[in-house]
């Protein structure tokens, strides 16, 4: 059984993964199917360097895994339940208030 601290850590890692729009786009793309970095960079229209930095963050958070395929690497969600969690979270947030926009902490004067 997980402790409260482990639960908080897991949610914080998921929150960190979702905290950046590019990482969200990567997760949504990988929810559809595993992909190679070059294909992801092209699909998301971002540089490979920028993509690499975001993939490293997602790996560090334990959200995606890199699987060697010969000389290439394929990325996928670390667990299929993450794809379902993304769908559930998106659906729940949209069900509450679909017309809301979350402002940046700086814009709101927070922290």
Automatic annotation (TrEMBL):
Coiled coil: none annotated. CDD domains: HTH_ARSR. InterPro entries: ArsR-like_HTH (IPR011991), HTH_ArsR_DNA-bd_dom (IPR001845), HTH_Metal-responsive_Reg (IPR052543), WH-like_DNA-bd_sf (IPR036388), WH_DNA-bd_sf (IPR036390). It comes from the Bacteria. SMART domains: HTH_ARSR (SM00418). Keywords: Cadmium, DNA-binding, Metal-binding, Transcription, Transcription regulation. GO terms for molecular function: cadmium ion sensor activity; DNA binding; DNA-binding transcription factor activity; lead ion binding. Residues 3-100 form the HTH arsR-type domain. Metal-responsive transcriptional repressor for the cmt operon. Binding of cadmium or lead causes the repressor to dissociate from the DNA. Homodimer. This is HTH-type transcriptional regulator CmtR. The lineage of its organism: Bacteria, Bacillati, Actinomycetota, Actinomycetes, Kitasatosporales.
């Amino acid at each position: 059984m997980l402790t409260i601290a482990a639960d908080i850590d897991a949610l914080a890692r998921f929150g960190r993964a979702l905290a950046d729009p590019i990482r969200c786009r990567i997760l949504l793309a990988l929810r559809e199917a595993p992909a190679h970095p070059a294909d992801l960079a092209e699909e998301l229209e971002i540089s490979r360097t920028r993509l690499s930095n975001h993939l490293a963050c997602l790996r560090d958070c334990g959200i995606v895994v890199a699987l060697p395929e010969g000389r290439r690497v394929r990325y996928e969600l670390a667990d299929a339940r993450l794809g379902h969690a993304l769908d559930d979270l998106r659906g729940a947030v949209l069900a509450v208030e679909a017309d809301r926009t979350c402002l940046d902490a700086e814009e709101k004067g927070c922290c």
